[in-house]
Fold these 4 entries.
Entry 1:
Amino acid sequence: MRRHRVPPASGTPVAVAGTRPTPAAVPAGAVPAGAVPAGAVPAGESAVDLAWAALTGVDDPELCLDVVSLGLVYGVRDEAGRLVVEMTLTTPGCPASEALVELARSAVEEAVSPGGSAPTVEVRLVFDPPWSPDRISEAAARRLGVHREAPAG
C-alpha cells in the first residue's frame, strides 16, 4: 500500500512508500455477495474493510495525519456494487478539499482492485455533523498535542 499525501505548498499528489495498515481499528462492514466485481477483492476480505484500511494511508496535508485518525471519514458502505465513502473536512473552505477527495477515491480503488477491475468508488463530502477535534483518535490527539479532559465521575 502507498501513503497518499498532498504537499501543502504545491497541492500535487505524491505517493510515498509505506506499509499496509491493518483494518482492526476501523469499523467492519458487510458487502452483499456479488455486489463488487468478481476478483476485485482478495478472498476473505470485504471491500469495505479494504477501503477503511486504504483510507488510513491518505494524509491530511496540513496535519500530516491520516484522514481516519483525524475522524474525517464518517462511513464506508457498499451501495449495490458502488463503494461510497462519506467524509468531511476540518473546515468547509479547506484548500485541499479537491485533492483529498481524489486521493481518497484513488486509494480505495487501488486497494479493492489490485488487478484493475475496480468497483465504482464515490467519495461524498458531507458537513453534517460538522467535524470537531473530538473526532480525532486518542493516538492522533497525542501526536498533535491535544489535551483531553478526563470524564467527570
Entry 2:
Amino acid sequence: MSVLLLAAYLPACASYQETAQPLAELTAPPAPTRQARVTLASGSRVQVTNPRVDGDTLRGTEGLMRTSGPPVAIPLAAITKVEVVPPSTMSGGTRVAVAAAAVGLVALAVIWAEKLGDCGWMCD
C-alpha cells in the first residue's frame, strides 16, 4: 500500500532550478511557466502559480499549483532570484503507462503475498 501512495505522490514532486532568463520571457506564450519561486531582496521566498509580468510587477497566485492561495503582486525590482520548475519531459501517455505499471506491480505483489499464506517465506 505504501508503494502505491509513493507512486501517487511522485508526480507532484517539483524540483526548482535557478534561471537567468527574464521573467517576461518565462511567462510569455507559447509555453509559459506554471510555477515559479522568487527570492526577494528581504531574503524571503514566494512560490507563485501561473506567474505573469504586468508592467513592472509579477502577478499570480501565491502557493503551490494544487493549493493556490491569494493573489500576489511583487515588484520586479524586489526580486533577486528566480527559480522555475522545468517542463516535464514525459508525455501524458508515458505518465499513464508508468502509473499503470506501478499499479500492476502492486497488484502482483498482493497476489504473491496471498499465495504465500499467513507466514510467507519464513515458514519453510
Entry 3:
Amino acid sequence: MRKYAAEKLAARKASRELVVEIFRLTEKMPQKAKVTLGVELRKAATSLSSYVTEGSSRNEQEEQTDLLLLAYESLVEISNKLIIAKRLSVVHPKSFEILQLRIKDLAVKINKVAKPDEA
C-alpha cells in the first residue's frame, strides 16, 4: 500500500522540530555536558531527521523501510541519552518529559510511514 504524503510530511516535520528542540536544550547544558552529551544528542537528532527525510522520499519499500529503521534507532539513542542527561541533572525534568512525549509521537509517525498496513 502506498503511503500518504501527509503521513510522510508529518514524520519529516516532527523530526525537524525535534532537532530544533534538541539544539535548544543542549545550548542550556553546562559546558562539560554540552561538549560531550550535547554533541552526541545533536548528532543523533540530525541523523534521525536525515534518515526520515531520505527514507520517506524513497520509492522502493525495502529502501524506505531500511532508512526508517535507522531513523527509529536514532530516536532510541536520543531517548537513552536524554535519560542519562536527566540522571546527571543536566536536563530539567519537565523538559525531559516533554521531549519523551515528542519522541513517542515521532515513533508512531515513523511507523506509519514504514509500515502503513499495520498502522
Entry 4:
Amino acid sequence: MPSTALLSLTYTGASASDFRVRVSLTSTERGLIGTTESPVVTLAGGPSSFLYNVRDAVFEWTTVSRNSAVTDGAIKTGQIPEGTYRACARVFVGTATTPVTEACADFSILQPDPPQLLAPSN
C-alpha cells in the first residue's frame, strides 16, 4: 500500500525561538541519497505545532546534498528505487550546528512485479 511520510513537531516553550529542520535519506544499498533543509521558522512563543510532509522536504526546502545517480532517476519516474531506507529528521535552534532533537524511521520500498499473460499460451 503506497504511503507518505509525515513529520509532526510541537514547540512547548514560552519564549520566542527560531528553528529549522534537516532531513536526510540513507539507503542500505546506496548510501546517502540526499539531505534537505527547511527555511528558518520564527516562533513568537507559546505552544505551536507544525506538520511537514515529503512534498515539503523534496520540493520546497533547500537541497544540502544529493546522490544524483539515484535522485535524477527518482525525479524522472516519481519513485525512489527498491530497497531499505532510513529517514532522519533533525531540529536545529538558531544558528546551532548540533540538533536539539532528532527522530529516525526505517522503511522499505518494494516495486510490484510486472503483470504476466497466463492465457492464451500462444
